[in-house]
Amino acid sequence: MSEAVSSVPKNLNADALKRPGMADIDMVNPIPDPYDLPLADLNPHNPRLFAENKQWRYFERLRKEDPVHLNVTATAGRYWNVTRFHDIKAVDTNHQQFSSASGITLGFPVGTELPEGALRVQMFIAMDQPKHDVQRNTVVPIVAPMSLKRLEPLIRSRVCTILDSLPVGETFDWVDRVSIELTTQMLATLFDFPFEERRKLTRWSDVATAVPGAGVIDSDEQRREELLECLAYFKNLWEQRRANPGHDLISMLVHGEETKDMEPFEFLGNLILLIVGGNDTTRNSISGGVYALNQFPAQYDKLRQDVSVIPNMVSEIIRWQTPLAYMRRTALEDVELGGKQILKGDQVLMWYVSGNRDPEQFDRADELVVDRANARSHVSFGYGIHRCMGNRLAEMQLRIVWEEIMKRFRMVEVMGEPERTFSAFVKGYTSLPVRLHRV
Q: Which CATH number fits domain 3-438: 3.30.70.1140, 3.10.180.10, 1.10.510.10, 1.10.630.10?
């Protein structure tokens, strides 16, 4: 069996292929080179591309030949793939013509009835002004500068404890032992969640974004059941914080003037948003940084020679990794973009992962360059009103991780190819075998 075929989840079921954007995906044959296909047939919204790390030439060709590219599928209808940096930024900052209110990932055509049993959740990232702003502002204080200053010693202590517990000279999974553990501990702190049950947060994050049959959940019904368990658990915490508030996300939502009367599925939607947002960016960038430095050993040498590059390197890792591959908007009216006529109701996918590799914006765009001058101009956090509210927290966690790694280890050596997330949305890793070498 070829490498391409063997990496496809073996239990991917028929229901998964009925999801938006999945129906036309070949799950059996090896992925073709994009330059062997007619341009019109290129469709980057394919989880196989990302699971097999074969998306790059697809985006390269689209940026060169059709940077605002139309796909039409039976389940998703019309959607446009925006692949150049400046076009992505133009869409992301144009809240008058491009809306978030119909969803942030590829979905069914606007106005289509959702399948029976589907959860109809709301979250502020999938809202427009003014409701977006008032709900977001309720929880922003958790990542305000003074809050981050208070959190930094705690994060450093936890990073030290995790790194000091790792085996030296033997192979282990960096994703599980470091990336997941650190981010889950941080999430537990932000929610004031029972610490001994913190891995529930990791599970709910994975369940919320998983493709059914790809190893995390078997069906959309299982997703529904597990997320309803999540809602029930947090409703209990909600009642506790109503009586005894603290400085945590649940207390902020419970006592926020604009959020205290949320309907249950709106509460669930915002929980999912905060859990996934607090988990995926940091978790996959921690793993992605280790993998990238092994791919570019000269950059690892540069880091060893001058650890003062770490803050800039953090931005470069986030650019290079791009932990969320895209975000969706929906056209509120007919609008022209890149010479193409986008129709009212069309879905528009801003491929951050492509914009961050746009050679017109970044020199040597496919390489990790730890001292890159414009590393912070990446689009991984988005632009405009929906820019990731936790971006400074994510950067701080990554900075501390690398400061403490460099005190202890000459190298975190990657011992084999990672297993990658089967998703066109979350660009991440499910495992990464490594071995540590002391300074």
A: 1.10.630.10
